[in-house]
Amino acid sequence: MPRHDATGAAGTPLRTSEPTALSLWSRWVVTVTLAEAVGFLVPAVVGAVLVDAPDTTLAFAIGGAGLVEGAFLGAGQAAVARSALPGLPVVRFVAMTAAAAAFAYAIAMVPVLLGPRLTDLPWPAVGLFGLLLAILLLGSIGTAQWSVLRGELASAGMWVPATAMAWIAGLLAFLGVATPLWEPGQPLGPTIAIGALAGLVMAVVVAAVTGAAFIRLLRRGRAPR
Predict the structure, then answer these.
(1) What is the mean pLDDT of each run of 10 residues along the chain (225 residues)?
(2) Helices 55-84 and 18-49, interaxial angle, to 10°?
(3) What are the backbone angles phi and psi of residue 88, rounded to the nearest 5°?
(4) Distance between CA 99 and CA 144 in Å, rounded?
(5) How far is CA 132 from CA 96, 108, 128, 208, 225, in A?
(6) Which of 39, 65, 197, 223 could anchor a disulfide with 43, C-beta 3.0 to 4.6 Å?
(7) 3-class DSSP assignment, residue 52
């Protein structure tokens, strides 16, 4: 199987033989899973503690918690990505990921803040509004990270849809675990534990999909300098 130069010129694929790719993917999955799972504990706890708080209070708190989660996620991804992309600006990558995660949580809180006012709109308008919010939410982290990766990878634009697909799969996995277990009026401890478990499953799925996408981008080569 052909091997490619890991430090080649612009457009030259990085070394991604099967053993190398599998090792990188494995490190990505383990590191990113741990980072995202730990980071997600913050919004999980905040959401459980403030479930009965005013919507505006919850929205601000969740946004701040998302900032922390995004910082953990970005740091985990950058820790592995840096081994293949030594020039990756880690601080900017982490900062953009954190800001995008906070933005995603803010978008997710919009329907909560609008509440019954949404029901006063015609259903086509509600559908279009929901679609817009979904696009903004799912594209937020990938777009923010693309703004950094485009300086390192030739096909960085693929990272946006790949990350969106990863989060779709991850959120579905989260709901698949959490929905049957959560019940109204549960004590705080079990509520947080269920959120943590579902968050761990979500983290594994997101890490697995984004790890495969990252390796594919590496195989397409570096960005022109």
Answers:
(1) 41 56 95 98 95 91 97 98 94 98 96 84 88 96 97 95 98 96 90 96 98 94 76
(2) 160
(3) -60, 125
(4) 8
(5) 21, 11, 6, 27, 35
(6) 65
(7) coil
Using alpha carbons, list the distances in angstroms from residue 17 to 7, 13, 213: 14, 11, 15
**37 near 203, Cβ under 8 Å?**
yes
Answer for the pair 56, 113: CB distance below 8 angstroms, yes or no: yes
- Looking at residue 19, what is its pLDDT? 58
Q: Is 2 left (phi over 0), alpha (psi -120 to 50) or beta?
A: beta
For residues 53-85, one letter each, b for 16 or more C-beta atoms within 10 angstroms of the residue's C-beta and e for the rest, the string is eeeeebbebbbebbbbbbbbbbbbbbbbbeebb
pTM of the predicted model as reported, rounded to 2 decimal places: 0.88
Task: Tell me the DSSP string of 119-172.
Answer: GGS-HHHHHHHHHHHHHHHHHHHHHHHHHHHTTTBTTGGGHHHHHHHHHHHHHH
